[in-house]
Amino acid sequence: MNRPDGRQIDQLREISFVPNVAPHATGSVLVSFGDTRVICAATIEDDVPRWMRSQRVEGGWLTAEYSMLPYSTLDRKARDISRGKLDGRSSEIQRLIGRALRAVIDLKKLGQRTVWIDCDVLQADGGTRTASITGGCVAAAIAFNKLMAAGKIKDFPMKKLVAAVSAGVFEGTPVLDLNYLEDKAASVDFNVVMTETSEFVEIQGSGEEAVFSSEEMTAMLDLSRKGIAELISKQKMAIINADRAEPVDLTSLTAAFGRR
Fold it and tell me: pLDDT tens across 194-227, in order?
């Protein structure tokens, strides 16, 4: 079986993180999974949702928003605001991002603050939700480091890193990190969210007018575990390097796209 881009069945696409791309956010990163590129930004507000205040819930909150820019796909995608409502797919994905990150964050350590994770897809080639979770974790960690440095919080609220990757059955073979061509032709599609200690946060999987065996499911989960271990390693380096990285200007951001 030959994959469209020549990768091995257990090989991730080229992964990169460019930190500090949104200077007004507390933490931000441009994450690339091959030709899928997403800007993930974490913004901290010194307030909590009304329901937390009314119920006197301790600590803070984290929520996410996800959108695909009109030019992120081959055919222009209309903005949600032009339709007057958020489409079902975007709503489901941003809920997934929020759940994934809240699973690894001690919200009580945030104090009375809300963390907004904004994920904007610049270019889509499969795996936008997994890239958003992986990049959103990096953006949040960068933001928390800044809060710690400013003395606004005493303890780092992120208990462990979390990342996500896709796997699927393509041309009868389980493969890791599907691009668009593989995703649209896959008979089975999985999205797996795991922590750095190999704990599952969420598994989304289904057959596309097909069924799959327990052996295929095990193979996809094993591939995902391997891929997430590699992603976690890259996340750690991106978070460490963010402290030394200068804010990215448009010229260097364009150069970062050109290198791919």
Answer: 999 999 999 999 998 899 999 999 999 999 999 9
- Is 23 within 8 Å of 188 (Cβ atoms)? no
Q: What is the DSSP letter of 105?
A: B
Using the structure block, give the residue that is written with the tokens 């945030």: 110
Taking residue 39's Cβ as centre, other Cβ atoms within 10 Å add up to 22
pLDDT tens digits, residue range 111-150?
A: 999 999 999 999 999 999 999 999 999 999 999 999 999 9
What is the crossing angle of helices 88-102 and 128-149, to 10°?
A: 40
Euclidean distance between CA atoms 208 and 185, whole angstroms: 9
**pTM, entire model:** 0.90
Cβ proximity of 200 and 193 under 8 Å: yes
Euclidean distance between CA atoms 192 and 104, whole angstroms: 15
For the chain, what percentages of helix, strand and coil (3-state, to nearest 5) are there? 40, 25, 35
- CATH code at 15-79+86-246: 3.30.230.70
Residue with tokens 């994920």: 119
- Give 46-85 as a 3 state SS string: CCCCHHHHHHCCCCCEEEEEEEECHHHCCCCCCCHHHHCC
CA gap 173, 9 in Å, rounded: 8
Beta bridge partners of 118: 41, 65
- Domain ranges for the chain, please list them: 15-79+86-246
Tokens, residue 31: 């994450």
